[in-house]
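quick one before i forget lol
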Amino acid sequence: MTYKLLIADDEQMERDALRYIVARGCSRIATVLDAANGREAVELAEQERPEIVLLDIKMPGINGVEAAGRILELVPHAKLVFLTAYDYFDYAQQAIRLGVVDFIVKPATNERVIEVINSLVAQLDDQHRSDREQVERERRLKQSYHALEEALVLGLVRGDLGPEQMRSQVEALELEGREGIAASIYVDFASYPMQVEDEAQRSVLRRRCVRELKAGFAQHGYDVLVAHCESIIHMLILRPLAEPSPSASVDALIDEGVQAIGRKLSITCMAGADCVARPVSEASRGFRNALLARAASDADRPVVVAAEPARAPASGAPGDEEIHRLEEELWETVQAGNQERGVELSQILVHQLVDGGVDFRTIRRRVMELVIVLARELDLEPSELRRDGCLVLEEVEASGEPGELQHALREAIVALSGTGERRIREHSHRQIEKARQFIDARFAQGLSLEDAAREARLSPYYFSRAFKLHTGYSFVDYLNSVRVAHAKRLLRGSSMSVKEIAAAVGFSDPNYFSRVFKQHVHFTPTQFRSKTLLH
């Protein structure tokens, strides 16, 4: 690394001599600037920001001491050295009090000048090395903090943190006594105007979504812990330490964040949030409520706040309907190969059974039966169900407490979801092709995903997953691409207005048609027609 040197002396011969000495003996000085007085020195320092400055104390106008003070205000990290004669020692004392690091007595030997300059170069090197090390330490500390933060949030979502793990992680993140509201946000990457093909693209979009959400909370004094799992962002929104409480509620801020993401990134999000703030160590229940609330969200109500569920009596009977619903959704999710949602539902299911006061042995038996049924529906024998070489059913049977059971069920769902996805690829091609032909023929009508799924004789959830796997497009993307292709033909070969064409290809809103058309073609319909006519 090289540095800049500024020499300020009212005698041209002195400046030339110093420049010559530096050029011969200080290889790390790449640029030498010179000034004939204090005012010039201050102006040059502001423009060039030199790392080392040699200042003659006695100069006309602004003397060296005054110039030193001004330069250090402009370039605080500069190393200043005074050029002085013996009878200006009083000035030198003032200079040292200002922060000047050394002085050279005139007339100075070549060796003295080179010694001082090279010593300052070494100090600057040490300073830069120390700064880089400090930046690296801070970077690693930040990485470690984020890793701890993510581990805590994911542990709370899964509900598998033991008391000692929980205590140590809460202490490490200095969260003792803090309370937070759990939230779960689904990021619909299929709604993004461009095709999202890999994890790198998802990661960039996910970070931008998190940034939008966190910015809104930060304005109102909330700290936010974040973890993600593919298309799900889990957030623990910590209540501010300062009083009074913020005026904006958490659900209102989530709603604002979801709208901001839609407005700025053109991505649809749906979210669920817990209804109360809980101590961090008790936030697993909050995440369970948030996940259930998110499952109830839709396009009309993108943010849902959970209602506090009443604890079922020991028999668990009043909760049977909800348990059956969860089991049915879990089966449909596994069949569709959606591992992420399947794992979520499996954790909620175990929590609901435990909260219902059901005996653990009964819970374990019910989970074993569920795994066996799911395996056989996928044409698997339970003995074929393995994860990392281990028999999953044996892990379920050997579990001795809810955390172990959750882990074993999670492993089973991961294995089953992989089989479900393979079945989709192998067995649903004919149904998806039939649905695709149905869309191609009926695109101008008010088609919905449910209509296409009914034509394929598949559940909407399974159909959505299978369609994306076979075609590479979501249902909406494919339908819009077909409509846009027909619209292009009409724009080229007919005199119909843009509004008439929008209606003819199935869009009830001409403005929405124009936005979709531009996303696909990179021109508005009017621009496309003009461009086509020119050719």
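fyi The two ends are 58 Å apart (CA to CA).
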